[in-house]
Design goal:
It is built from 11 helices and 5 strands, in the order H-H-H-E-H-H-E-E-H-E-E-H-H-H-H-H. The N and C termini lie far apart (109 Å).
């Protein structure tokens, strides 16, 4: 905010106090709407006004206007119909503005630009705020439209200003009251927005806690499911070992050896079903065979 205001500080010097207050409020209110502006013109001297009046006019036209001492600039675009002393800028009652672009160096007079993407031209937002503060907008003039121009004249003409007439104290105080009211309403809105933001932050915090709780619950359930899946797998393996009677290939030698070996008790083969054995049995037969059981039994025979 302070950086944006600093870009207009020099142009605010010399303005009538009430205009300066309104211009400052305008910069602040536009900033709050994410539309940055810069005051491009404030108090303008008589020679500066005549120099602008010379733009777009021939020397003959200047001579007829009583400005033979001013150099004509016919190749330039005409920007004003007011010669020196006939503009409210010359008395500190007017300002001109432009949009300040994001690089904070370039300005724009594009009246259709929507930099804040709110479907409303930034220029229109500035004008809306300016009129709320008591400014008259040059874009509504009938004879010579001046889109960047804002002024406070309190019903006075430049003729009256040239002879020293000024607004009454009552008029000026009434305008100050309008400016203060707009600023107070903006502050109230700001407070309401802060409260709404705090409520949203609280809601987000609560939702975050809920999500974290659900995530933890999900992780616990996932771990439990994995444990159950492991147990089920182990049970299936155990069941298969108990029910599957197809001997593993690695046990066939031991099973056949025991089948070929007669029992010392009755002379019958130690294993009478060499084509059937659970994994547990096959494991036991293999161990016995490798320990030399079949060799000892044959020796006894």
């Amino acid at each position: 905010m302070e950086q944006v205001k600093a870009k207009s500080a020099k142009r605010l010097d010399g303005l009538q106090p009430v205009v300066k207050a309104a211009a400052t409020a305008l910069i602040e209110r536009c900033y709050a709407r994410v539309v940055n502006i810069v005051i491009t013109q404030g108090l303008r001297t008589i020679p500066e006004q005549n120099d602008l009046f010379a733009q777009g006019r021939t020397q003959d036209e200047l001579n007829k206007a009583g400005l033979s001492h001013v150099k004509a600039k016919p190749s330039m675009q005409k920007v004003t119909n007011a010669r020196g002393g006939y503009s409210n800028h010359n008395f500190g009652w007017a300002i001109d503005f432009a949009l300040l672009l994001p690089d904070e160096r370039t300005v724009s007079w594009d009246t259709l630009r929507d930099g804040d993407k709110d479907s409303l031209p930034d220029w229109s937002e500035v004008v809306e705020e300016a009129k709320a503060l008591g400014f008259e907008w040059g874009g509504e003039w009938r004879t010579f439209t001046d889109l960047p121009h804002l002024q406070m004249v309190f019903g006075l003409t430049t003729t009256q200003l040239r002879i020293g007439r000024v607004p009454t104290a009552v008029q000026v105080q009434a305008t100050y009251a309008v400016i203060n009211k707009v600023q107070e309403e903006a502050d109230e809105l700001s407070q309401a927005e802060k409260q709404e933001l705090a409520a949203l932050q609280s809601e987000v915090k609560n939702l975050t806690a809920v999500v974290e709780g659900l995530t933890k619950s999900k992780d616990v359930l996932k771990d439990q499911a994995l444990e159950q899946a492991t147990e089920i797998k182990e049970l299936k393996t155990a069941v298969m070992e108990l029910t599957d009677t197809t001997p593993p290939a690695w046990s066939l030698e031991a099973i056949q050896a025991l089948h070929d070996t007669p029992s010392v008790l009755n002379g019958q083969p130690v294993i009478d079903t060499p084509d059937k054995a659970t994994k547990s049995e096959a494991r036991l037969f293999t161990v016995l065979h490798r320990l030399g059981l079949t060799a000892r039994l044959k020796g006894n025979k």
